[in-house]
């Protein structure tokens, strides 16, 4: 089967006809009165039509070849927009541009009319979206399973510099990329009681499927993202209704309406809320029932499950999959306990994404026993079996201090456990799973994260993508290792000039956007210094803003000292309940308004923080970035994936030896990376000194001035005490070692200045960053999962090679 040759090239004329057909007959609109929304819908339907055939062919090929399938279970899929991505992977962007122009619209305007699907918080959700695209590009038969949240991640506004959240409502308008599948529906139970060898739930909802096609590069393969929406089992409890208890009669509906209503807005912290546990079970049970149903239509022996099915748990959020799979195999399908346990373990894999203690999910045995009584029994039996088999004392178990430790449960129920960068996987073995690693040597492996070069280079950065393709051909798009053939051009002055011109085009576009949306004028020739990610103390946006204050202060003292002009760009959301992160946001905005109105530094320094950072904003900002800020406390950022996107797009990185920064530095060469700060080992040792912050501040004139200016109210003149708490924490509770790393960071920034003032030297290093980014394609990551965890093969082996 060959997707490429079967994919008819679509002419502009043919596409136009298809778009007009949809406008008329699907949307019922007259072209003379069609809005940008109408044209977007019509174009989306026409493009979607081109996906359907490859999608069917991939499904048929999987059935006919009796191929093993991968199921990626994730509470988050941070997809962003779909239309442009689909057009790029199908090679229809140019045809679509012609069509848009002919009907009197700008294709960009149509593309940007699509709301982001923001069904995720940050890195974990975006990783899932990159993985889906790579699995389709590689031809790995796969399904993503998630929840169809009616409201994705909240929208962020600033009021007086403070974050204000408003609900996100991407589904208010029809979503052209989903197919409702009401015939694929499963009942999901909660509560009630465990009865011998079974469960009688007291409540239930129906999980109803919505499918979105995921098309790979050049349309060779397509997979499915199946999202579950909650529906009431019955609209009314008739017995209660008839007896006059009207409010209680509507309860089943109430549960269903809340279950898939909203995404929990926490990244790397969990809340322990009953509704969240219910959401996790809802996703997991629906997915497993669907997987077993599909398996049983093709095969008769459930013992063969691991040979045809691989299930990946994205963090512990779907870790109830272990007990639920055992329950379905034993209680429902009559398999014997020990075999069910073996089969489940051989089928399941678990990816750990953090070591932060506040992120490790633990559910009280009371809550677990109440919401999922049968599963609580099963968890206790898994725990007992494991203790007996490994002769371990109580303190290494799943159930500890009356809590179910979801990390331990996921580990014990998986045949492979992986970390997401080399450093992180190493720390996983040494810290959270130290004991379990000794009991099960070899179970923990590493799979360093990656990002899709289709979205993060070809789609986001057309000037650079075109330049690269002109030099080395288009092979890099489907095989990013080929980008290393750019390396010799780092020494070619003409190429460096073109590379710089591409970056400048992107910087001009970003400057215009910042001017239009925020009313701040920024200079495209200044260095664009960018930190975009969730706001969190461990990511240390406060270190960045402290350095900004020191820089501003020193620029004012000595304006003619040959500073490199900079624009500091921040982007990111705080969890709504995370007070310290919100304070950091407020400070950044306060500092921005003071610095941006200073006539002394007006040509040297600006600070901008556009609100509502999301996938689409990342696509705008990353290609225009000169300097990427990756400054987390060493040992805290599991991997980072934004860091990889910047490297691909020719930004230089200033960063600590944390997460995937370590591997980025190895790949691009230490001479092309601005390193600073303590190592993960040094961080642990440093913390033992209770005076670490005080000692560091007392030794640093710069740091003292910064804290002094803040505490005096320089940035909050109308409310001078506003940051007393923040300054007090810097002196006395500096858990993330901002003070200890401050001078090293400031000095590294001055080296950045010096290089920026030598454009030729800067550009050489920038080219080398792009040329050496091949390792960070999520295609490489997925091949690693396929070989080491899933034991699956590409369905495109023997097909036309990836070019
Ligand atoms: C998340 O985004 C991450 C970890 C986690 O436990 C929960 C969430 Cl929602 C992030 C990590 O912080 C980041 O370092 C990593 O790159 C990303 O997951 C993908 O692995």
From TrEMBL:
Which terms in the Gene Ontology molecular function aspect does this entry carry? glycogen phosphorylase activity; pyridoxal phosphate binding
Name one process (GO BP) from the record: glycogen catabolic process
Enzyme Commission number: 2.4.1.1
Q: Name one Pfam family in it.
A: Phosphorylase
Transmembrane feature ranges = none
The UniProt entry's GO CC annotations, sorted and at most eight, read:
cytoplasm
Reaction(s) catalyzed by this protein?
A: [(1->4)-alpha-D-glucosyl](n) + phosphate = [(1->4)-alpha-D-glucosyl](n-1) + alpha-D-glucose 1-phosphate
Give a short account of what the protein does. Allosteric enzyme that catalyzes the rate-limiting step in glycogen catabolism, the phosphorolytic cleavage of glycogen to produce glucose-1-phosphate, and plays a central role in maintaining cellular and organismal glucose homeostasis.
Give the protein's cofactors: pyridoxal 5'-phosphate
> This protein is called what?
Alpha-1,4 glucan phosphorylase
PTM N6-(pyridoxal phosphate)lysine: list the residues.
645
Give the similarity note: Belongs to the glycogen phosphorylase family.
Keyword entries, A-Z: Allosteric enzyme, Carbohydrate metabolism, Glycosyltransferase, Pyridoxal phosphate, Transferase
